[in-house]
Structure formats: structure tokens, C-alpha cells
Amino acid sequence: MIYLITDNTASAVPIARIPVVDYMDLYNDLCERMKHERYHVAHYFAAQVAGGGLRFYLLLLDDGESKVMISSFVPDYYSEEGLPSLTAVHPAFHPFEREIHELYGIRFNAHPWCKPLRFPFDRYDRNSTMHNYPFYEMSGSSLHEVNVGPIHAGIIEPGAFRFICNGEQVLHLEIALGYQHRGVESEMTRSTNRLRQSVLAEAVAGDSAVAHATAYAELVEKLSSRSRSTHLERERAVALELERMAMHIADTGALSMDIGFQLYQVACEALRTMTINTTQAWCGNRFGKGLIRPFGTNFPLTAETVEMIRRNVGEIRRRYNEVRCEMKESPSLLARFEQCGVVPREEMRRIGGVGQAARASGLCRDIRASHPSGVYAEDICHEPIVKRHGDVMARLMMRCREMLQSADYIEKILSAYTPLDDMPRPDYHSPLAAESLSFALVEGWRGEICHVALTDAGGRIVKYKIKDPSLHNWFALALAVRGEGISDFPICNKSFNLSYCGHDL
Predict the structure, then answer these.
(1) What is the share, in percent, of the chain residues with pLDDT greater than 90?
(2) Are 289 and 214 in contact (CB under 8 A)?
(3) Domains plus CATH for the chain?
(4) CA-to-CA distance for 33 and 63, rounded, in angstroms?
(5) pLDDT, tens digit, 9 for 90 and up, residues 395-440
(6) Helix (H) / strand (E) containing 438
(7) Pairing outcome for strands 108-109 and 83-84
(8) Which residues contact 329 (CB under 8 A, 6 or more apart)?
(9) How high is the mean pLDDT of the chain?
(10) Angle at alpha carbon of residue 362, lines to 344 and 349, rounded to 5°
(11) Alpha-carbon 86 to chain mean position
């Protein structure tokens, strides 16, 4: 047996039950299995074990059967000679193998792109720094380089973009991230204070505070083997869809502004403000911080809050749909966005793309449909919206359609919702399963979020791994600008709107 089979609704798994296999057996299985679109990697990482050494863990998703397949191996005799690289066969493994190499010095033979991923403070090679990052080089009398960053013109995280151009045409873009050395994952294990851990989860990516906090809360709840109330699951789904609405509206406005359509940008900013103010009226914070906590909530919905959310969401939906219809009829907007920044479906599949960016290229990756839990498994039969052109316009239309869909989901949930007078409050002290692996999969507005934790014999979390969807999709941005004019980079970048801080863990 190579894999332990579970799903996104199951409790934590005892580590002793996870198969420890020979690496070549796992390698050979993955080389064949990953040829099928139904499989993709949720997480792949290494953890130090008692007495020294490493144990590798793989979480593979079977989207066809809604299963999560967990396996592990101990490298042992492979450590010196190196492991055959899975990236060489399936490029979707590239960020995971790069991180493992960076942290532990494990060699992956034939890896085509084994460059630093983040430059963490505890990296294996201390001589590897931002100053000697091995950027890709091309030579030719007609070629020139354009360097952008790491200090960004806007108030966002640092990142370096190096373009190799032939005139105005981009031949290659390389993206280097990780300048903050944030150390979020290690901070999650420094204390057993779960309120502190909840706050850290909200800070993984500030524009996805609800989604990451939900992943943390569900992971801890699985470790305790306590079931959640259906009321709590519905309230979390409303918060997730409000967050999705706010960010899709904001991105619609940002794309409009980048091509000089200020009217649409101003309209979207007003609607985004109305959306996040709705969240603030619910919990006191515009981004939903403090709203999601393990086992309960400090801000249960009341009849008045339910009515306020339904009223606001209905108005936002109506006004946003008017903007959407006008944008679709604008010849100059269509001319600018269509056939710009195309990422073909097969390329998106090869690099392991997820979320709305993947769906805009025709690749249906959506945890709400493939691995549903809570409301999405019981009350809502989610049908992912999929586009096929893979260009800036497709990514914009994905946002437009998903925003309307989220508004409809909120109305469906709340129209049949009766608030409880005794909603459970957060619990930060419930015992956690010892020597277990727990994971949570949540579809944030960018895409698939995965949190994984390992506990020791006392039930303390000793390893915490976070995957933001940006980990997969930054490479898609690099592909999108190949062959485009360098002036197209801003709108290509906005059409993905990936997270710098969500990558820098």
C-alpha cells in the first residue's frame, strides 16, 4: 500500500497509519498517476523526526473521487546521491522540491530549475542570498534586460521581476520572491496559544484572512475530533463568499484603472467598500479578522445582521452586474484584454495551476466542488465557472461571474437561516490528537489553500505547513507575458493578483 486514503471531511490521521514507502515506488507511481488530470498535489514537504533525519510527506488530491491520498518516505540512502526529481517529469512539483532543497540541502537529480524559493532564515546554504540569486540569462546583441523591484511602486510586498526582451517583446520573465523572511510557519509552532495561532493564520495573506483562518480552525477541529455545528459552517461560508465578493470587485476595478477606465474603477471601489463595510458591521473588522475561530464564534449572526447582509449583498450584486454588462460592451476594453496574457490549458495543468486563474484557462480546479466540506457538501451543489481562453479577459470574466455566484450563495444560505441564541463560543484549550497529521483544504478567492500540521506525543503542533494558491500560480504569470509587449505586464499581473506575502512563509 502506497497511500492512506481519506477525505476533506475526515478527522486527523495517526502518523503511524501513514505508509512509509520506498521513494522509487512512490516516484514511479506518481510519474504515471500525474499524467491524469484528476490528480494534483496539495502539499509535499519534509519534517525532521526524533533522533535526527527527515521524513517526507505527500498529500495528493484525487479530484475525481474527492479523496486525499497521503504517503511518506524516509530518504536515508538517497540523501547523498540525490533523489530523482519529480519536477523533471511533472513540473507541478517544482516549488515543493525547490523548498525542500533550500531548507534541507536534499538534491533532486535532473531538476530543471532548482533555484531558491524563499530565502528563509533557516535555509541550508547560508551562502545563498538575494544578492547572488542565479537569474536566467540570455545573450544577443538585440536583447536587453529590464529589472523591476524588489521595492514596489505600490504599497505591497517586495518582489523582483527580471525581464529579458527583444525590443518591446518579452522573451522571458523570472520572478524572485521571499524578501521578507517572514517565518510564519515556524511561528505557528513556537507557542501552544491557539488564539495567537488564529491571529497568525489571518496574517498569512491579509486579503485572504477569512480563508486562511478557516483553514486553521478546521485543521484544529479535526485534531480534536469534535464536530462543528451546521450553523457555524453556514456562517463561515457566508464570510468566505463575502471575502470572495470583495476581492473580485476590487480586482475588476484595478484592471479597469490600468487601462484608463476610471469610471468602472470608481464604481467598483464604491461597491468593494460597501462589501467590506458589511463584513465590518458583522464583526468589527473590514477584512473579517476576529470572525473565524476554532469551535465557535464571538460574532454570531443575529436576525438583524442577517437582514443587513442580505440587503447589502442584493444591492451590491445588482449594481455590479450593471458595471459588468457595460464592460462587456466596451470595444476598447475588449480589444485591450482579449488575447492578452494567454496561458493555455495544458500549460496551466503542467505547472499545477489552481483557483480562478486555472478555471479561466479551462482547467477546473475548485475545492468547493472536488473536495467539498461543510455547506458545500450539504447545502450547496457548487458548479465551478470555467472559461477556456486563458487570457486577461477570461480572468476578468471569471471574477465577474464568480462575484455574482457568491452573492447568490449568500442569499441562498441566509434566506433559510435561523440564528441560534446559544451559538458556541471559541475554544482554545480542547485537547488535540497526539502523533497525528491533520490538514484542511479551503477554496479561497485566489484558489486552493492547504494547511497541514503534525503533532507530537503530547498533542502539541510541532510542524505546520501552509500553501497559499499563489505558490502554484506565480509561474503562470511568467508564462502569460512571454511573447507579449512589456507594457502588457501590468494588466497581466493584475489579472492574476497573486500574493507576495502568501508566498513568503
Answers:
(1) 79
(2) no
(3) 4-117 (3.30.460.80), 191-467 (1.10.645.10)
(4) 12
(5) 999 999 999 999 999 999 999 999 998 899 999 999 999 999 999 9
(6) strand 436-443
(7) parallel
(8) none
(9) 93
(10) 60
(11) 22
Count Cα atoms within 13 angstroms, Cβ side, for 299.
19
Place of cell 445588482: 318
What pLDDT, in 10s, does the model give residues 32-86?
999 999 999 999 999 998 777 899 999 999 999 999 999 999 987 555 678 999 9
Residue type, 14: P
pLDDT over 90 at 262, yes or no: no
β-pair type (448-455, 436-443): antiparallel
Q: Render pLDDT for 377-386 as a digit per residue (tens, 0 to 9).
A: 888 989 999 9
Query: 246 with 275: CB under 8 angstroms?
Result: yes
Q: The whole model's pTM is what?
A: 0.96
Q: What is the CA radius of gyration of the chain?
A: 22
**Using CA atoms, how far apart are residues 414 and 429, in angstroms rounded to an integer?**
31
Q: What is the rounded (10 degree) CA torsion for 411, 412, 416, 422?
A: -70
* Count of positions (residues) in the chain: 505
Nearest residue to 170 via CA among 495, 496, 503, 478: 478
Number of neighbouring beta carbons within 10 Å of residue 409: 23
In the numeric block, which cell numbers belong to residue 152? 514596489
